[in-house]
Amino acid sequence: MPLNRPPLALGRGARGVQDARRWVGDLCVEIGRPELSECAQLGVSELVTNALLHGEPPITVRVRGTVEHPRVEVRDSSVEAPILPSEPLDRPETDGLLLTFGRGLSIVARCSEAWGAEIEDDGKVVWFAPAADFADDLGVPGVITGFAHRAPTPTRDRVRVHVLDAPLALHLGFQHHFRELRREVRLLALAHESDYPLAKSLSDVFGSLERQLRDGMGIEQIEAALAEGKESTDLVVHLPRATASTLTRFLELLDLADDFCRAQRLLSLARSPEQRRFQIWFLSEFVRQTDGAPPVSWLEVRSNGHADVAT
User: Fold this and answer.
1) What domains can be seen in the chain, in order of their start residue?
2) pTM for the model
């Protein structure tokens, strides 16, 4: 039976480690694998501790895989690869101290059947398949994947953006609208580029932003907020600084895309005034904060009744 539970969003500090331990332990029991609970809690404690000490927020925990082979994943927004353990771990009198201060990934290696890290453009996922028993030796070796296929943007070259009071329904609608529009302009550009050069421009911009808009705009945080029954939430997201100029062009092209939709050259519907206002605010936050401006919340934009945010 496949597992794909909504992620657990974690705050900073020791409370985040405690919440992750409890959540993963309870989930092992819930899926009928209580024998994995101890190693699952031990491993997730270490990964969350490392994320808090060395990673970048937001930090989330989720369980994927299957009931037969569950996999615990801890995601943060740093693209720096973890350092794999290379020396034997000195056994302390109690492992409890390690859960507070962290001792690298040697503990994870000893409580896993397999483990590793996947480096993505907008962060990394460190994962492990919990074992039934804690190993007395070095455990299994970890493997780092992802970055060999593309060079991730160094964390120092990325900007952290705080998106305040993001409405979940409009955010999900933006993701759907982007996917629909991306497909339509791509097909229009392929079939009628000479007649509609704007379609080629739109398609090129969509291509350059595809990963950021699909995966890097707080999707896991949105899923966690939805699982808690929220209607809005604060997001902390990252993107390369160079992307801000592309987002400015993207904002301009979205208005032109609406004209295409109204002229029935695209099957997608033009945005409603509220959708347009949300998208302008959301994308402008990345541009503004890249330039050093403070965040402006959606509630403030909505209450003042303007379509554009202050720059």
Assistant:
1) 2-150 (3.30.565.10), 156-304 (no CATH)
2) 0.58
